Structure formats: structure tokens, C-alpha cells
């Protein structure tokens, strides 16, 4: 769908492009007064992450560009997850706190979007592969563009630890086996020689 290798981090903006969803920051919105954009980015910084806005039958995600890059990934994935799940908004929120109409979802849909967003950022099989390689949480977070909190959340929620304990040791030699090698260009992990083997994902 997005033309990436089978095993690779999936940047949220790449997925958004494949889904034909524009991703904008407040300052990218044509006609939005600078004072309003500044208010959203600073005064209300902690009050919002991202919103999905219907514009002429298309979907636009406006997200908080003041959040850390890894948080932005998670925020955008969350909004995309709503779309992938074909969630019907509980209501359309009229302009007010935000200068545009947006969608509001019920709790169950929010939980589903949070779960799918995490799966997209850090699939269980990818997490397992990284752990078999004995990468720690910060290294996994860097490779997949996720936050350390997300790595921790996925480790806790996927029940991966018992499986890892069973597999550890038996797989150490597999890591050195031949096969397509994947490196994330420019990352510290690539510099230190991290090689993720497809068969481990
Ligand atoms: Zn949501």
C-alpha cells in the first residue's frame, strides 16, 4: 500500500499520503490567522494532539506540531486509525475551541484507535524481533520512530515477554543468518550495525 519494504518503520505521514489524507500543522492552514495558530501551538499546546477534519469530502489531519516528533507520529497514527476503522463520529464538534469543525468519537472508538495506532507504529512481530536482538526500549523507540512510552505500552499489552523468554537463546544464531538486510538510513542504530532480519518479524 505504501511501497515500503516488508519490514520497516512505517512513518505516519507515509501512511497518510497513501490514504490520501493531508497532514497539516496549524501554521499550514490557509487563511488561519497567525494569532490563532500561535494560540493553538502555545497557549493550548497541552490540550490537543490532532483532529480529523472533513474538507469537501476529503480528510485532513491537523496536528500539534509543537509535540515531540515521536508523539506527533503517535498522534497522526491515532487519527488515521479512526479512518481505517471507519469510525462514525459520535458528533461533529462545531468551531469554537478550535477554529474548525472536528469529529468527536465515543470511548470505545477512542480505545480502538489508540490500539490500532500503536499496532501500526510498532507491530507485535516487529517488537518481538527487536527484543530477540536484545535491543533496549530506547533503541527500539528510535528505530520505529516511537516514544519509549509506546514501546513500554506495547511490551506490556502484547503479552510478548513470556514468548520472548521461551524463544531467547534459540534465536541468537538466527540473527546472523543471511538474508535481506534492513538498515534505517542515518540512524544511530544503522551506524552501530543493527541489522533486522525479515524472518524475525
Ligand atoms: Zn481519537
Protein described:
With 201 residues, the chain is mostly helical. It has two domains: 12-121, no CATH class; 124-172 and 180-200, no CATH class. It has helices at 12-18, 34-43, 69-84, 107-121, 124-132, 137-144, 148-157, 160-167, 188-191; strands spanning 22-24, 50-55, 58-63, 91-93, 102-104. The protein has a three-stranded mixed β-sheet with strand order 1-3-2, with helices on one face. β2 and β3 (58-63) form a beta hairpin. α1 (12-18) runs parallel beside α3 (69-84). The protein is elongated, with a radius of gyration of 19 Å. The two termini are 18 Å apart. The structure holds zinc ion (ZN). Zinc ion is lined by residues 78, 82, 105, 110, 113.
In short:
The protein has 201 residues and is mainly α.
